[in-house]
Amino acid sequence: MTTRLIDESLFENAENGESHDGDPPRLVGARCSACGTVVFPRQDSCPRCPDGAMSVRVLPASGRVWSWTLQAFQPKPPYRTPSGGHRAYHVGYVDLGEVLVEARLVVPRAEIRIGLPVRLTTVTAYQDEDGTEVLTFAFAPDRDGGR
Q1: What is the pLDDT of residues 101-145, one digit of tens each?
Q2: pLDDT digit string, tens, across residues 32-67
Q3: Which of 44, 58, 71, 122 is the most exposed place for a label (fewest CB within 10 A)?
């Protein structure tokens, strides 16, 4: 099956859901040269100060669940319903050290908790009209115990 990333600008050196070395892609944010603020996704100006230039910052692949909830109802557009219809899923913030990233959490209900070690992965967001599987980033339990 053909795949593509939902937005290649969110990832470092990635194509079709994998980096050039075969590992899952890494998320890319930006860091302010003046105050050190890190943001995700990338942006051209610092949200905290007017003085710094924003440079690319590759984010860690693992972190910990900071907060989470169950997305039980179908979100409003631009959400695209996956084939088979909407199914409830976990979403939350993942603490990557320098920045909190909002993401889908691919964690069974019995395991999800604040502080859970998680690792970056990709999951299918939806299928395009031509059958292409569109991948987005998510976090799954890090069985190696996190950082």
Answers
A1: 999 999 999 999 999 999 999 998 888 889 899 999 999 999 876
A2: 999 999 999 999 999 999 888 999 999 999 999 999
A3: 44
Q: pTM of the full predicted structure?
A: 0.87
Strands 100-105 and 89-95: antiparallel
Residue pair 118/142 in contact (Cβ under 8 Å)? The answer is yes
Residues 65/112, Cβ–Cβ less than 8 Å:
yes
Handedness of CA 137, 106, 22, 115 (dihedral sign): positive
Contact 133, 114 (CB under 8 A): no
3-class DSSP assignment, residue 142? coil
**Segment (H or E) for 98:** none
Distance, CA of 31 to CA of 53 (rounded, Å): 8
Q: What is the DSSP secondary-structure string of 20-78?
A: TTSSPPEEEEEEETTT--EESS--SS-SS-SSPPEEEEEPPSEEEEEEEEEE-SPPPTT
Contact 69, 89 (CB under 8 A): no
